[in-house]
Protein: Chorismate mutase
Organism: Streptomyces koyangensis
Amino acid sequence: MTPSNTGTGRSGAGDTAVLAELQRLRESIDNIDAAVVHMLAERFKCTQQVGHLKAEHQLPPADPDREAQQIARLRTLAESAHLDPAFAEKLLNFIVAEVIRHHERIAEEVVAAEDTTAGVSRATG
Ligand SMILES: O=C(O)C(=O)C[C@]1(C(=O)O)C=C[C@@H](O)C=C1
């Protein structure tokens, strides 16, 4: 960033310190974003296993009661962390919607695999 793209049109002796502070904050933001990506990857590894478990035992992909509990818990956590609870709820809903799509795909794959196996055993007697 240069004085010409700070949006103030001003420049001066403080620029170097401001840019250093901005750089420091951006490094923390990058670390936090990396942690979020790693945590999400771990969460999706768990939910993939849940998806297989559900598909193999004919359980529905979505569990609205569980989601209601998660939302209530996250809203409380968000409030105590001074994060907007509505934002926390939207974020969870966004993630869970993706998980449910994964669960549905896994269930389709399990059914297709079972159909194939049933076809083979019919053909071979
Ligand atoms: O706990 C489950 O039953 C899941 O499938 C996981 C999960 C989640 O991502 O947290 C996803 C879908 C359900 O509606 C509820 C929760």
